[in-house]
Amino acid sequence: MDRRPLYIDGSGGAFFGWIHEDPQAAARDTVAVICAPGGYEYTRAHRTLRHLADRFARAGIPALRFDYHGTGNSAGDDSDPDRVAAWIGNIREACLEARAATGRGRVCLVGVRLGATLASLATRQIAVDDLVLWNPCISGKGYVRELQAIAMSVQDPESHADGLLESAGYVMTADTLEAVRRIDLKGTPPVASRVLVLSREDAAPPTAFCEAMAAAHLPVQLVRFAGWQEMMAEHLYTVVPDEALARIVEWAAAGAMPFSQSPPASRPEPRASSLELEVAGEAGPAPLVEDACSFGSDGHLFGVVTRPVGEPSLPAIVMFNAGCVHNVGPNRLSVTLARALGAAGFPSLRFDLEGIGDSVARGAGPENDPYPPSALDDARSAFEFLRDRYGYRDFVALGLCSGAHTSFHAGLQFEDQSIGELILINPLTFYWEEGFDQATQFEDAVAYRKSLRDGSRWKKLLRGDVNLRRLWQVAIGQVLAHARARADELKEIVAPHRASRLARDLRRLAAMRRRMTLFVAESDPGREILMTSARRATSQGLRNGRIRFETIPQADHTFSQMKPRRDLVARLSAHLRGVKAHSHR
Predict the structure, then answer these.
(1) What pTM does this model have?
(2) In which order are the strands placed within the sheet that holds 30-35?
(3) Is 571 within 8 Å of 524 (Cβ atoms)?
(4) Which residues contact 73 (CB under 8 A, 6 or more apart)?
(5) How far apart are CA 448 and CA 4, in angstroms?
(6) 275-426+558-583, superfamily in CATH?
(7) Residue 368: closest CA among 73, 56, 58, 48
(8) Domain boundaries, the chain
(9) Is the pLDDT of residue 45 over 70?
């Protein structure tokens, strides 16, 4: 399989994409363009859409999937104007690019959820042959109501000025919301030779929309499939709906004809895999370059290097996956961090471990493992790639959740790399064991202690609305945990070689002169885990500055609200600028 990253020039700014081709497949005269859903559904569907692009390619139909401007690895952000028009423009530009890059004349346009809605509208601006609409949002008003319901489900919903709506970590401005509300697919049927509509098995099918297309003399086929909820589950638990993917590709292939490849000399030059952009910095606009890169022993790892223009002088930040979210990070956090740190002069690499995101697993290995056995091998490849390709010599390892685990062990294992600091964001465990969830007891303890300061929770207790059995289990568990912690602390004093594994490893990091900074949401147990499992070593590290904590108020585990997310980015940038200033004295 040939998978090529590229940046496409759009009228509103460059956007990122992938072209999938199988050189061994019997070529067909069609190219598929895949339009992702929006918001939180974008990262959850990412795995399925990569599989769909591969399936198209194996059927002889090259496929282009892409990130809309302001999303994923593309330029821009949520606050840019004219989002709906820009995204429809991206679909039009992606179709033109797909035709030019593959030599195919026919286009099969595939959209998922909001992507299906936008794809349907885009057919009124550019000719397509086949159109696949997978669970489309027929009414913009209905879609906005769904986003509002998700936003209201947050325990402490953030209020925003100027009509902003933040839903599950993604923001829409008032102008974007109004543009989405105006969408009504029943009143604006698409233009295509034929249409396939895939409906969820557990929801009412869009019968009225299909009837409107039939009234407009569009050949339309409606099928229902199971698997939508599993496809859109939490990233760790997503399941690729193979039956639906097979049906889409079979339907597209049935309308395609054999294709005679053009001679290689007639094919266009490969599009750029680098993006120039400008972001706001402390001293004004900061020019950056982002390179989409493949590396590793087989070129099987994918990442994006963000680098300031000029000679490298500051440590390079290596960012590891947060759970099973691909390299853009939850709520696009990794992209935001990389560009903010780039504006401060720090280059970075955000990349996917093998089996996650766009680092496709080799052989029959499992996908979607947040703690893959290859994690440290992949981490070493990342450090060596930055050294050999860009000349960086000093590094910082950074990660959220499972990425913090990878960062911690990279710092312990890679004595031959110049890693000055480990930045751990909301670590849940320092030693992963399959089937053992150490963090839950600490999370429960943090939640119950927070409840002690909430008068309404005491009223619930008096009314009998609290699970007393669970409360008792947590309380007993904490007593036992603190008893073990005191025993471990005593071992640290009288028999350091018998201290807890974490205490020994913290001392080893100190001996290697590697700092460790933790940015922890107030509801997360990172500090609890350290102070319970290695109290003395942690306390000594705090006193001598080798260990540092910062607590982010009002934040959840993945920083799914704008205010604490911005707080984290600002604090992390300020921290590294402080380290930079100290090192230059």
Answers:
(1) 0.90
(2) 2-8, 15-21, 63-66, 30-35, 106-112, 130-134, 194-200, 220-225
(3) no
(4) 16, 67, 290, 292, 304, 327, 328, 335
(5) 49
(6) Alpha/Beta hydrolase fold, catalytic domain (3.40.50.1820)
(7) 48
(8) 2-138+190-258, 140-182, 275-426+558-583
(9) yes
5 SS3 class: strand
Burial of 332 from C-beta contacts in 10 A (0-12 / 13-18 / 19+)? buried
| Helix, strand and coil in the chain, % to nearest 5 | 45, 20, 35
- pLDDT interval class at 585 (50, 70, 90): very low
pLDDT tens profile 498-528: 789 999 999 999 999 999 999 999 989 999 9
Each as own residue / partner, the long-range contacts of residues 288-293 (CB below 8 Å, 24 or more positions apart, any chain) are: 288/339, 288/342, 288/343, 290/73, 292/5, 292/6, 292/7, 292/16, 292/73, 293/349, 293/385, 293/389
Beta pairing, strands 15-21 & 2-8: antiparallel
> How do beta strands 348-351 and 418-425 pair?
unpaired
Dig out the tokens for 255 from the structure. 């309308």
The Cβ of residue 140 has, within 10 Å, a number of other Cβ atoms equal to: 20
Topology of domain 2-138+190-258, per CATH?
Rossmann fold (3.40.50)
Closest to 221 measured CA to CA, from 184, 261, 185, 193: 193
User: Which residues, listed in sequence order, are joined to residue 111 by a DSSP beta bridge?
Assistant: 35, 133
Looking at the predicted structure, is the pLDDT value of residue 583 above 70?
no
Cα–Cα distance, 84 to 65 (Å, whole number): 18
347-362 residue pLDDT tens? 999 999 999 999 999 9
Q: Is 538 helix (H, G, I), strand (E, B) or coil?
A: helix
Task: Kindly indicate the confidence band of residue 434, based on its pLDDT and cuts at 50, 70 and 90.
Answer: low
Question: Which are the contacts of 483, defined by CB distance < 8 A and separation ≥ 6?
Answer: none
